[in-house]
Known about the structure:
By secondary structure, the chain is an alpha+beta fold. The protein folds into three domains: 9-135 and 261-349, Alpha-Beta Complex (Spore Coat Polysaccharide Biosynthesis Protein SpsA, Chain A), CATH 3.90.550.10; 137-207 and 213-252, no CATH class; 360-444. 29% of the residues lie in helices and 28% in strands. It has ten helices and 22 strands. The strands form four sheets. Strands 1, 2, 3, 4, 5, 6, 17, 20, 21 and 22 form a ten-stranded mixed β-sheet that branches. Strands 8, 9, 10, 11, 13 and 16 form a six-stranded antiparallel β-sheet that branches. A four-stranded antiparallel β-sheet has the order 12-7-14-15, with no helix packed on it. Helix 6 (324-334) runs parallel beside helix 7, helix 7 (360-377) runs parallel beside helix 9 (415-444) and helix 8 (380-408) runs antiparallel to helix 9. The chain is globular, with a radius of gyration of 24 Å. The relative contact order is 0.13.
Amino acid sequence: xxxxxxxxxxxxxxxxxVVICNWNGERLLRACLDALARQQTSAPFxxxxxxxxxxDHSVALLEREYPHVRVLRNTANLGFAGGNxxxxxxxxxxxxxxxxxxxxxxxxxxxxxxxxxATPGAERLAAVTSKVVFQxxxxxxxxxxxxxxxxxxxxxxxxxxxxxxSVEDEDVTERVLMERLTWGxxxxxxxxxxxxxxxxxxxxPLPDGLPGPVEVSLRWAAESDKTATLTWAGGAATLPxxxxxxxxxxxxxxxxxVVDVVNNAGSIVLTAGYxxxxxxxxxxxxxxxxxxxxFALCGCAVAFRTEAGxxxxxxxxxxFLYYExxxxxxxxxxxxxxxxxxxxxxxxxxxxxTSIEWSPRFVFxxxxxxxxxxxxxxxxxxxxxxxxxxxxxxxxxxxRALRHALKYRTRPPxxxxxxxxxxxxxxxxxxxxxxxxRRQIGRTASVNRRDLQRWLVAQR
Length: 460
């Protein structure tokens, strides 16, 4: 036990303030707040929920069932950045802790998360970021089928079209981890699908506590009639795939091994300026169980030294959603602070519970905010190269789509181009503000941009 305090000291002398940003998260709040209430820690803490103008019954739930929680109500949805800033700029405790409303911490999470701040030599430690694993446990389902090349206009090696994955008749497609098997989504509505590679692995979430075997169904089609082999621990099935969209079902025996999967073990930035989760979708075998310094934090579950956050004025409100935590990490490091990953501080996270990955909102904010971050934080060379590449890629994609449409006499897709133009216009509108902030960062920085970029990781 460290920082020993009387049992009634939380109201008089709290050490930390835990901030949960909420937007229409009524279905998520109970699990998050109940897990927070079960924390086994000697560090007294306050719990605040910032509500971003929810239209569900989130606030009523908080007032009815969690009267000890302070609720800060925004009159508009300020996003993750602005919503959290509402609370962070009011925090007076030595430490400010962020926890996603779709995350449930392990009982010793807060104790382990705050512990590094009390170790010798931690005076310039700005933030401690958690080990984040996906909330469910997963069935490893390998797929193998004959591959084909669609032609000169598309250099990918493709397998089959995957439309849906179901577990016990429940559609779990958006919760399946499939980056090791599929390319990005294509199409809209019921016709939305992903091309797979010829081989790879799906990680299928399974519900806890099922007493018997589990039925897993895949809805798929292919460019020609062929077969696909599915393999899991202790079993395999070879199934037909035709040019017609059909559903196939396999039965996975009870007690088939399932695995934990890493969501984030600290964050990195690639040499092309893309932020990434360290360990993302890796099977958790203990390979991330060593505490270490990392370049960037993950805003899902992180503790800040309040002094450090105030020095750099917390998140950039203009980011709204995505890349705000990477930008904050970059600015903290420029100011001479460090960031640590603590594997003993574990939370389980429901991935994309509030914002769907690859949705228009996701694409808009990740594309725009990456460029905003580079304009503020990167060296001039990296920023100019990667920001300049975006309009060139946009034009190339539009021209390629037009040529394909003319060749095959189809209507060219315009939504991707319109989205990228919308991103560019929003970026250009905010660019003068970012350049002003860039100059301010440069004037006060104790670590220069070139030295910081030595942390960047080459893409594999």
